[in-house]
Structures
1.
Amino acid sequence: MLPRGRPRALGAAALLLLLLLLGFLLFGGDLGCERRKRGGRAGAPGCFPGPLMPRVPPDGRLRRAAALDGDPGAGPGDHNRSDCGPPPPRPSKCELLHVAIVCAGHNSSRDVITLVKSMLFYRKNPLHLHLVTDAVARNILEMLFHTWMVPAVRVSFYNADELKSQVSWIPNKHYSGLYGLMKLVLPSALPAELAHVIVLDTDVTFASDISELWALFAHFSDTQAIGLVENQSDWYLGNLWKNHRPWPALGRGFNTGVILLRLDRLRQAGWEQMWRLTARRELLTLPATSLADQDIFNAVIKEHPGLVQPLPCVWNVQLSDHTLAERCYSAASDLKVIHWNSPKKLQVKNKHVEFFRNFYLTFLEYDGNLLRRELFGCPSQPPPGAEQLQQALAQLDEEDPCFEFRQQQLTVHRVHVTFLPHEPPPPRPHDVTLVAQLSMDRLQMLEALCRHWPGPMSLALYLTDAEAQQFLRFIEASPVLAARQDVAYHVVYREGPLYPVNQLRNVALAQALTPYVFLSDIDFLPAYSLYDYLRASIEQLGLGSQRKAALVVPAFETLHYRFSFPHSKVELLALLDVGALYTFRYHEWPRGHAPTDYARWREAQAPYRVQWAADYEPYVVVPRDCPRYDPRFVGFGWNKVAHIVELDAQEYELLVLPEAFTIHLPHAPSLDISRFRSSPTYRDCLQALKDEFHQDLSRHHGAAALKYLPALQQPQSPARDG
Amino acid sequence: MLPRGRPRALGAAALLLLLLLLGFLLFGGDLGCERRKRGGRAGAPGCFPGPLMPRVPPDGRLRRAAALDGDPGAGPGDHNRSDCGPPPPRPSKCELLHVAIVCAGHNSSRDVITLVKSMLFYRKNPLHLHLVTDAVARNILEMLFHTWMVPAVRVSFYNADELKSQVSWIPNKHYSGLYGLMKLVLPSALPAELAHVIVLDTDVTFASDISELWALFAHFSDTQAIGLVENQSDWYLGNLWKNHRPWPALGRGFNTGVILLRLDRLRQAGWEQMWRLTARRELLTLPATSLADQDIFNAVIKEHPGLVQPLPCVWNVQLSDHTLAERCYSAASDLKVIHWNSPKKLQVKNKHVEFFRNFYLTFLEYDGNLLRRELFGCPSQPPPGAEQLQQALAQLDEEDPCFEFRQQQLTVHRVHVTFLPHEPPPPRPHDVTLVAQLSMDRLQMLEALCRHWPGPMSLALYLTDAEAQQFLRFIEASPVLAARQDVAYHVVYREGPLYPVNQLRNVALAQALTPYVFLSDIDFLPAYSLYDYLRASIEQLGLGSQRKAALVVPAFETLHYRFSFPHSKVELLALLDVGALYTFRYHEWPRGHAPTDYARWREAQAPYRVQWAADYEPYVVVPRDCPRYDPRFVGFGWNKVAHIVELDAQEYELLVLPEAFTIHLPHAPSLDISRFRSSPTYRDCLQALKDEFHQDLSRHHGAAALKYLPALQQPQSPARDG
């Protein structure tokens, strides 16, 4: 333990004597210390003596060069085996560590989650994340952390858009845009009482415990305020090409992907003024920043070298195209943080990129649910809702045959809304979003669906973390899908044995941004004209405003993979007549759609009202504020039926649209269905759910709920899917 | 660096002086050292002074008790933050570490892979695994490591069955059986030149770098030979129930799930005699060992306490039912090794089991391909074949439009044969194994397939590590599947974008153990009688011995999910006549099966010979030593066709069986097909593969290969699947 303010009572002579003695004892006749092995400058010390002899170089230049030339332990706090000194003091067991990240947009939000996963995997301390975000990232990350429920992680959000004006005057050519400059304003943006913070780019991956990095704060001298790793490229040396004129920097300069900031000292030192002055002065001769905040940090440090504490290279191994990082990682035994600081990211050319990519993929595909690990011995405020959840789960009886159902109902799934870039539809009064949910085995439906439905969609996908990456590649590989910015994909991460069909529907429904929604299923292709027709019908019927109604879209099915999709009701009726199409579930479960009254529909010229009947489960268009699906129905069975009961109980009219239709395509039974099809327990549990549903219905609707009682007491074929 | 044999030149007085000085310097006026926080005994030192002052207790008892009572750093080499001393010296960067594991049977082989994954994830040193295995585990693990190709990992196998006689005389009640005792004979079984080894149970999971554990060897005194963690239960204290009489042990005794063995010293000390004498003597009064080797280790240690070096509790956190481990892990900041030492394994009851289970699942589901990471700066002998592979991969042109095909062909997939318990079929001269391959989206076919084919099957499954676990649960949940020990499942781990269909078929084919194989596809259900009928036909026709032939099983298809499977040829023909069945691919690709001559088959009473024709791809029965599938055909298209060409080129007769049939069930197009269906590049690449195939054919068969040239030059519809 080396407390930061320890008295330096002993004189230099005593210290020297001691070190000599210690050296003799430790290394005896056999100098065990591993000297620098490659490319080192003669005389550069290979054994870092640790905090006992802080090596503050006169100008900061020599040491940084040494760090790059193969001495990974060159920084004062390094903890590699090639060091001979003691490791830096680690933060105490439950000390709270603060991390700040600037994050904007859909893609950076995905990146930041991978970074956070790697950090959480190795961390052993409580963390407080300070996220400076735009509205998009905030929407995504707020929901994500809320549903992730990781113990001992606190998250605060700061509005990046409010900070924009402080940096928008700086011309910047870096791909990160304005947000790339925002790290400069952290000392004023973060709470005044916050003194220490680790600042990270979204494109870094941890390979070690962040507390080891935090420990390096202890090595700051009384005036140092910024801990940085040297740049692992020759960028700031200049002359990379003709007229290459970088911003001023000490030697190779520093990389700002990983920063230790003493906010308190920066505030005291007048940081705001300092960087602004420097930036303004440099911008008199330089047209713009090339590397965003990094150029300005380096220019300030060039002027005030006493501010910087150089960090060991392993804390920011930079994988840019012409990286010199190999000098660092070949000598080190431990990489601590990997930084994908090329605009090409994982496609960067580097002979060891496979190694680093594997490392990155580890966390990209890592099941984030597994990070809901408590920190033993560190009491922490549980995440919101976690305590009630724990209590509810604790009350479940593992011997209950429906235990899996109960547990699944209580499961809080991590939700990543708008997983891919998405442009919300422009506000239009009668617009309608197609809402559906799917898992991996239905991805191949998406292209056809996009061809049939040119309007906005909100789709919930039930995926593992690894599948989410496959999904991403699938979209990128499809020109049809990649072109559609009006389709919002919301990833709900898998957990538990039963398919949480209604929870998925609710996520997709909650994220729909138009005033109306078409509640569909992923195996259906709507008529090509349906989107336009629905909007027109909504307007004509005054849906929502004048009339509380659900518009029914009649459902059909084909049993053949290859069939020619009808372009009109006339064509559809012709196919129906020759037996190429059927009304939906005609053979197995006609009750599900019988009330739609297909015979009447054939002839209908205008919308007509139908009455609810038992087991009715039509596909409907309703206002966005319609009742939610009942999340107790997990697995398969009764999930849509219950929703229609609720609509009817709330006195929605059911109006069948005469020109609307949607057609179900064949598919093999999903694994989730097969698993339970043959189980009598499954049927019993479903009946129990239905009973509880009816109790709740009675509570809300009183005697009116009696109407549904017989329907709820009917046994249902377990072979049907939801 | 503290080399093991460093001269101890300084006298005790000098040492003491130095320590005093050092202590003053380090802790100054502010004794930063964190004292033990809970439950500690008064006077027990909370600050471990490190190797400079080894704390060897007089009888070993006190310290072990302290370790359990909340001082995780009590062992001499611990490296927790609550320590104040320097960490133990780590092995040098590229030092080879040796690990021995006893492993027998299918289930332990799966366990050991999870253990190895956790070890590889954190390791930074080259490893040499010494695996003591039965024939089953050796078969699995040899193939696994051969195809895994992890750099800087060497594997040696030792025949457990040859060692059995050395321990089979010991009566043992532990669930691990005879293999549980085998750690006792490691000093003689392992190579004589091997001096240090870490011995692990298959049910441990690493949460840290194994080199930290290896480093603890440096703390052994000159006579210590066995490093162990104290038992975290009261078992050896006795009196857990009436007549509970455990074997003798020091205090709580030691757990042998993690052992540091100085093999050299044990051999010198006459270990073989020592443990046998002790065991024989104890067995005079005790009926059997209860905890296998652990009872004997403890009895020996009780007698020779000088042998044991107690290790810090974090190196073997024991999750048995009544574990006291919480005392260890609540105080520690770092868990190093988790030990699932309850027969219930992950189902053990423990209030923190979710934490530990999450940790275990991390490695269970971890993509093992990501562990093919090189150790930077440690030159090591590449795994067999790795160099050629690297060269071949390096020669590929990333700009080549068929790059993905080339890369996929070269990919060496990790293969885990007989993933689940499997009993080889008894040797029968005309027995036939159904051979097929599948991925996750066809699991639901397995139950039906088992009902249709009562004989042995060899199935290759293309899965991720996480999917392999889902698969395992799927089988366990199905009584039909769980009952079939004659179905061998071989997991081939996913890697790359294209489905390696023929590599999968070859894995399944190579693992078939009967003299004949039925080369089928997973979407087909054979006639109920086919297994018996094939065996009779093989015998009658003298297949293989008298006749070099491939028996053709005519293929049909249904377009409906629900259909009544025909019980005879007569029923089948009736369904065909009413259009409920078709000959296979009748609508899309009749050429594929036209040579089978369905018209003739209708009437046939005896097998008849047919001639090869372009694009023929029947399902056939052949001797097991038939030609392999051509692995160059990855993705979809031409994969079976090429195999039939090869059979014909090798002059196999094609004999159609008059009573045999198999029926294809409908399914949605797989994702792999959809991905490429629309790609013209895909077609071009397939043509390039076909051209290369023909060049090879000409090389092997000379002018006879000319016959196939026109067929190979025909464009093929890209929409067909393999």
Note: Chain B has two domains: 97-369, 415-713.
2.
Amino acid sequence: MSGPDLLTFGEALVSLRSAGPLTAGGALTPHLAGAEANVAIGLARLGHRAAFAGRVSDDELGTFLLRQLRAEGVDVTHVVRDPGRPAGLMFLERRTADLTRVLYQRAGSAGSALGVDDLRPALAAGARVLHLTGITPALSAGAREAAGWAAETAARAGTLVCLDVNHRSKLWSRDAARAVLTPLAGHASVVVASDDELDLVGAPGADEETLVTGLLARGVSTVLVKRGGEGARAYTADGRRDAAALPVTAVDTVGAGDAFTAGYLSGHLDGLDLAGRLRRAVTLGAFAVAGHGDWETLPRRDELSLLDSRQPGDTLR
Amino acid sequence: MSGPDLLTFGEALVSLRSAGPLTAGGALTPHLAGAEANVAIGLARLGHRAAFAGRVSDDELGTFLLRQLRAEGVDVTHVVRDPGRPAGLMFLERRTADLTRVLYQRAGSAGSALGVDDLRPALAAGARVLHLTGITPALSAGAREAAGWAAETAARAGTLVCLDVNHRSKLWSRDAARAVLTPLAGHASVVVASDDELDLVGAPGADEETLVTGLLARGVSTVLVKRGGEGARAYTADGRRDAAALPVTAVDTVGAGDAFTAGYLSGHLDGLDLAGRLRRAVTLGAFAVAGHGDWETLPRRDELSLLDSRQPGDTLR
Amino acid sequence: MSGPDLLTFGEALVSLRSAGPLTAGGALTPHLAGAEANVAIGLARLGHRAAFAGRVSDDELGTFLLRQLRAEGVDVTHVVRDPGRPAGLMFLERRTADLTRVLYQRAGSAGSALGVDDLRPALAAGARVLHLTGITPALSAGAREAAGWAAETAARAGTLVCLDVNHRSKLWSRDAARAVLTPLAGHASVVVASDDELDLVGAPGADEETLVTGLLARGVSTVLVKRGGEGARAYTADGRRDAAALPVTAVDTVGAGDAFTAGYLSGHLDGLDLAGRLRRAVTLGAFAVAGHGDWETLPRRDELSLLDSRQPGDTLR
Amino acid sequence: MSGPDLLTFGEALVSLRSAGPLTAGGALTPHLAGAEANVAIGLARLGHRAAFAGRVSDDELGTFLLRQLRAEGVDVTHVVRDPGRPAGLMFLERRTADLTRVLYQRAGSAGSALGVDDLRPALAAGARVLHLTGITPALSAGAREAAGWAAETAARAGTLVCLDVNHRSKLWSRDAARAVLTPLAGHASVVVASDDELDLVGAPGADEETLVTGLLARGVSTVLVKRGGEGARAYTADGRRDAAALPVTAVDTVGAGDAFTAGYLSGHLDGLDLAGRLRRAVTLGAFAVAGHGDWETLPRRDELSLLDSRQPGDTLR
Amino acid sequence: MSGPDLLTFGEALVSLRSAGPLTAGGALTPHLAGAEANVAIGLARLGHRAAFAGRVSDDELGTFLLRQLRAEGVDVTHVVRDPGRPAGLMFLERRTADLTRVLYQRAGSAGSALGVDDLRPALAAGARVLHLTGITPALSAGAREAAGWAAETAARAGTLVCLDVNHRSKLWSRDAARAVLTPLAGHASVVVASDDELDLVGAPGADEETLVTGLLARGVSTVLVKRGGEGARAYTADGRRDAAALPVTAVDTVGAGDAFTAGYLSGHLDGLDLAGRLRRAVTLGAFAVAGHGDWETLPRRDELSLLDSRQPGDTLR
Amino acid sequence: MSGPDLLTFGEALVSLRSAGPLTAGGALTPHLAGAEANVAIGLARLGHRAAFAGRVSDDELGTFLLRQLRAEGVDVTHVVRDPGRPAGLMFLERRTADLTRVLYQRAGSAGSALGVDDLRPALAAGARVLHLTGITPALSAGAREAAGWAAETAARAGTLVCLDVNHRSKLWSRDAARAVLTPLAGHASVVVASDDELDLVGAPGADEETLVTGLLARGVSTVLVKRGGEGARAYTADGRRDAAALPVTAVDTVGAGDAFTAGYLSGHLDGLDLAGRLRRAVTLGAFAVAGHGDWETLPRRDELSLLDSRQPGDTLR
């Protein structure tokens, strides 16, 4: 098959990071952001062939986004440049040492105008895995349609479909999300959610066991529950398996969930068993939280064991 | 009269300045920008009471804008916070040493949603001078209506109305601008334009003399033509008067026109004759181009003579 | 009453912050500092009308200080510009991760030359609360007289007087401080002190209970004891009430005491009961320690609950 | 043909740029550098398919170099990672406003270990143009052999070979360079040299006319002489053609010659006549000198006319 | 005696520190580094006369290194400038919050070309203490010979010789190191090692007690075992003494071992007993880890008690 | 003679440089400043033995100053640390591209408290040249006495005394300066002044020829008149000699006069004739103006010819 190992699509954003309160007016550093781009980079760093599709503004900021994706070796052949819409932006403010706050300016952006036709060439090329998130359907009616179409098309073609719920409360309500994501999950083989997101792909307020049972019954083969510093849980037909988080000093949790998913999918592409896939998932999550940036500190393949048996403050020389 | 010396209104923007190409991803520094805000600050620095009105987003970026205006002593009592629309943004890229490029992301912004009702309280409070620019009518139908209403209301109340043409080709065409600005100029006592903007308040392609004659005939008492490094010309019923630019090293021309206008209006408020008003206009213009930023280097009153009889490289100590 | 909610006075300093050892010569960032200015900003951010009085140098640095106060919405109408004295400075060096060191250059500064006449207009305008600290009397004989006069005048006019002991060992000894602050406390309704400062407004070495009893007996209605990461205690005629600190990651404790006081006074102005005042006090203290800067991270009113029920690393989006 | 439009090879360096004297210890910013990489990027920005070959260290710095090349869309498929040799470095110090100084640490680097075998796959894939510089043969005996082999192989295959003399006096003497580069020029269709380099591909000290005549006689079809701010001259069988430099403010001349060459080759690939090729050459040179960085300010295709008919200080908005 | 209190020699490196991943291309800050230079600075800061010898490149980077040593008051009279070899470099990357990674580019450097003749004048001048590390013998055969000659010469002259094992796994293997360092330790009075380095001066894999016994039997009078956050142990003929680490927040452990050694040697020079020497050793180690940089945060003599009885977040003012 | 080649004394200041207006609150970078320190560094860079004497605060800022002087190889053995007075400060603001403004905070500083006793040891050690400036007598009565005593003592001992008038209008008036400096010049062999300072060591308003004649008559052997970008003039008993400035792009003129003086004195110490001394003087002046900083860009001896026959934009590689 000539397609990439992983195909993902969604909105790539320019994240403008502020070291202190935005109102103080300090310098902002631009970064590529977006859950799907994070996953693509996570896989590309490990040597997998990853492709990203979507709409990107045809201006300097859009070019910035593509430069970053290309720098990381992500295939952007199927990205569509949109000459009439601006780049989606987010301001990421470190409000306190423990609390990060996001301000979106993405309404009407190029990325939100995604449509089915934008994805046709990429889907036609095929891929071993298709990854999508619950953010895309929140962007516009067209993006919602495109996400559904892509999931269904890929599933029908035998591609493994992975859905990360990724609820964004500033984009839509939990009820609105549930109404869209629950049917979408029906196309997925792998569903990823943090523990408070699981009932967005099932009955509101149901407990984890009930929700997982329902998903497995609907054809999902693996449900991954992200639990932050406490690790993760995987549910399959064979039951439940837990994985502890790696003991690292967390300095920036943004992107950790995407790193986790990338690690899991990398393990899948490498043919690892569930324990191995989970191990890689929590390893990538650990790299993500142990450094600043959404994806900048993710490991190359030769670095996968770097966090094993280290002491705080170690120096490699 | 309890109102301020100057009232102005329009869109205050967050200008994100990049020291190099935007695509390279270097740090961006946020600045308050906007032609009308620049004029208000220019006057406040000289000790005049200046007020700014308009809509500003009710988020961190809007608060940043108000912090800057307040820091400069501009009265923001009549600014309306808009909880549902984002801040208008511009990316300002130093593309080459000689060429600056602006990327706007202001469509649908809080500032563009300006309406007549937003301006009623400020107009009711009165002012000696009302300043507006040709940017505001380009933002939205509502803003266009608000600008016209304010100009007419102020003129009727005997307030001196100043209009700076300020054509923004990324917002509208010359024809669209002319259709709106020509009638608007009819309410103005002072019209300011760069030499290539003058036919936006008159017949397309007409020569300067014809255009000025037409404006004076329509009740404009002073027409100011900005000519960059070559200085400026003023036309009144008494004829034409030229003013040379001050000989300074220009490092950033953004904001120079607004500084010029602020200097002129300051001279008016101080009761200077035309020569004195022009002298102050080109002095403020010189301060603007001699330092970085749209308004950051404008002079306080005790600094007005700072650029006189100086040699390059002088140190005051 | 036309006066502000809070009037405070004292020395506003330019704090030059160094990220590492001063001797290494790294860049310094200027900040507005001063315990009283911190309190004024804390209240202004919450929507109270706060005014600051005092002497500020009539140069670029003094203008910097006023720009910051105005940016935060603090009324500086009654600030006196001093053309003959420089700005007070402090160098703030992060000596180690846990230890911050201050180097003052404030002897002979504009702020230290404060006198009774400087405060008359502000006192005449009235206020609901007058806040002063034990720093002002340490600056000069004139400042000492002015502090005493203001406290007495305000108390006589029925204004609630709040005194924060704020001992600065680099300015005067504990004995010298005690001799001045003990009588000053007699004009106060609210006395704020850290636990090792309490005997500067009473008998040297006495225990907390004895000292509090003495203060209450002398007419103080509330004694607030700041205990850093362990929270705070309030004593009134009704007895003692403890408040725990909010569980946040502390990165910069400078300004925490002032934030605490601002929170308490905000609660007072809002008519909260003692529990509510203390809750707001520790909340503002938490914001102060959870971010860098003396006051930069203090909350706006809509942010007051931001630290409640958060997990480390949370992202709001 | 499946090969790229341009193939080039050589050493990609990490350039550590210092804003002031190196001895003062200010921050250094890493940049991708290297004459051949500059040419590849110049072409890729204009939409040509450009490929870079060579050896790059298999460490963090080598990865940095590849990230930059990929970001710019340069094909690095045929780059060989060298696990045993470090990245070549250069320190670039702005010694005075007019004078830049380079300190190389490239002896024994991965790039200098280039050999014929490293280039075989890239040459086998073919290309419309092969570009090489006189730097590569200065790096090592192996690199010298590789350069000669590649030029000869490509010429034989009918690929247009372009040689830029690019003398580096810190790497070898003029005599040593001449002995190697003169025969190498015999394989080239296009020879590029600054006016003081021309006699490195001919008789020492000969005048320009004699040298050009000799080159044309040896089969070179075009000789391009770079003359800095005075423009350039092209010699062909049809005689001589001059091109003036574009009038821009020069802030950084590093990389200007490579930009010139990239512009010329882009014109060739687009099928322009000599005048058009020269026009594009001086246009790219102007972009290079008008901004900071070796290649960072080079134009995309839609920017090619950006410097035409501009005034200093223009703002596009 | 006219010689310094301490003489040390070795390679001074330019350490280029990166705040994030090197591949991301952020700014690098140059620092003087090198275990021996760290020790010299540690002693000079405490008022001891410290001298550094070795070879340093005769270029801008070498001058940078000497500027730093001189700034700290280290005598560099006997440093030899090497006109033909470059400065040794290291890139120091903060890979994660807990893990620092070093990339050396020091092969063939000026410092690695150290020879016996370079050290003759410094040894002839004499010193109370000679300090050397196990890094120098790893640099080259000449440096190995020089280290051995210096240790032997000094020991014979009655100078106290201190050897810090300082194994660098990127420079040589444990077996290679052991073969060289074991005989070298025979010249030392004081041997310093981290707990996993101790068997590099004795039998591979032997336990601590056995190894210490062996060293004492061979004439070493004191063996110091560094145990990071757990403190240190000293062994002498009188038995074993433990010292706990000071309770500080560790932000950068690079240089901590050198600081420890400097503290111990300072105590020796001041005539302190073993407990006092250890106390000073762990004190300097605490300063090193509590701030950023290899040596930048080491204490002056008047600061030695600064970390005693402090609370996290204390401010001295 | 065991003394240094040059002895100078005066106040070393911490100069806090701002890239933009001080009121905007941007970062400040600390630099060592002071006319005499600049001269000492200029000579030390050229390999002369230079010593600086004076009082320096015994705090972090004083230590910063000494670190800088030591880094440059200036002997600070005779500097006195003052435990009771702060460091002298200056804020250096780039007000416009052409105009720099200084704000002093040096009243009561350690440096201003200089007295005769502080200088005795340094004078006793002797030197070939004693350099002093007209700034020192402006600092305090004690400093005035010390300057006079030192000039007289040195002259009597046969040391060449050099006086640079260096009028600082923010410290004293022209009349006050003249009254002190005119007699002081009587001890000098070399008097340096800019063309508008010359009548501060003679009759007010007298022309250059008259003033020079008077100085020569009073025993001054050489009068040097600095004329900025127009070069300099030297007057001796043999008449007048002019030297043109080197053609460089001037970016920062601060320190240029001191560099000029250092160059002249270096030529004197090297035994050059007047033409050679002037040539070196204008060469150092050119280095000073061609880069940022008071002394940071001064040349080492091997760089003296670096500015000869260069073109703007040259790169040395």
Note: The two ends of chain C are 42 Å apart (CA to CA).
